[in-house]
Design a protein that fits this description.
Radius of gyration: 21 Å
Largest sheet: 3 strands, mixed
Number of strands: 3
Number of helices: 11
Strand order of the largest sheet: 2-1-3
Structural class: mainly alpha
Length: 321
């Protein structure tokens, strides 16, 4: 028996599949792009899964900051696995078709992970705010139980925003054209080109839902770092300011990369002339940011470096035995 969602899609849809155009306008670069995205996918998965293993394995990383980092790394692994396998398949075989059900499923997972990441980054910013601005009360204010609850709120919020957008989109009719000029099923950005229904209400509701669920964590993130910077500037010694700022520099870099490109993509006018520009910028927060996150956190974090050294020593000892 088919699910309710599938019945809705069948009743509203007269096309059975979408065509993801991806990078089809660059036929001479298909092989090179395949190797590039394959390398990015392997590095992303290896780096993020290694970060999760380190956080779970080593007790000195069992702190709220690394608990949130482990959640972020797990999320980035899922995010890459949602988008890149289809991109690689398209580049290798030339197959661009994706069923309507599969497209909506990818959109749901992508939106879910994107909404969750906004909240996770906000929780990590709040954690750094407490650690730097309230150091004497940090252990009490950010307990293990609270960090677990904040992470749970992040994941649940992602589900809610994604579910609301997906249900709204599934109520529209899709009768052609069935081409999506993108490398993944970003329904929100392409709805006016692929739906034969009046998309005004969907675009209005998606705008409202998006801002309701993403604006609060963005404001919390910005407010946390404003207070952090003000606190750092009050530290009398230069070395003290540098040492304190280094503890949050990695996270600030990730926040700037993610929100900067995300806002550019969704704040630019929805014009056919800007499709290629938006496609390039979307690569940053969907493909490159997940790859860079573990590198950024590990290169500037002594505790992660120490865990990596211990892990490699254990591996060498195991291989010798």
């Amino acid at each position: 028996m088919q699910s309710t969602a599938e019945n809705v899609w069948q009743n509203q849809t007269t096309i059975s599949e979408f065509l993801l155009l991806g990078f089809g306008d660059l036929p001479e670069l298909q092989g090179l792009l395949f190797l590039l995205f394959l390398a990015i996918y392997l590095v992303t998965m290896a780096g993020n899964l290694l970060m999760v293993v380190l956080v779970v394995t080593y007790r000195h990383l069992h702190t709220p900051m690394y608990f949130f980092l482990g959640n972020l790394s797990l999320l980035e692994s899922c995010n890459s696995s949602t988008i890149l396998p289809k991109v690689l398949s398209s580049l290798s075989s030339g197959g661009k078709s994706v069923s309507v059900t599969a497209c909506f499923t990818q959109f749901f997972i992508f939106s879910f992970l994107g909404g969750t990441e906004c909240y996770l980054l906000a929780m990590m910013s709040y954690d750094r705010y407490l650690a730097i601005c309230k150091p004497l009360h940090y252990a009490i204010l950010m307990s293990g139980r609270l960090s677990f609850q904040l992470a749970a709120v992040s994941w649940v919020s992602g589900v809610l925003v994604s579910l609301s957008l997906t249900v709204k989109a599934s109520q529209l009719s899709f009768c052609g054209p069935n081409e999506i000029d993108d490398y993944f099923c970003d329904i929100t950005s392409n709805i006016q080109y692929i739906s034969c229904s009046d998309t005004y209400l969907f675009e209005l509701s998606s705008f409202i839902f998006t801002y309701i669920f993403t604006l609060p964590p963005f404001i919390l993130t910005v407010a946390s770092y404003v207070l952090i910077i003000l606190t750092i500037l009050r530290i009398p010694s230069t070395s003290g300011r540098q040492k304190t700022f280094s503890t949050c520099f990695s996270h600030l870099t990730v926040v700037a990369m993610y929100y900067g490109t995300l806002m550019l993509v969704y704040m630019l006018p929805r014009s056919r002339d800007l499709r290629q520009v938006k496609k390039v910028f979307s690569l940053f927060y969907t493909v490159l940011t997940p790859m860079f996150n573990p590198l950024i956190y590990s290169l500037r974090n002594m505790e992660v470096k120490d865990a990596l050294r211990k892990g490699f020593r254990r591996l060498i000892v195991f291989m010798i035995k």
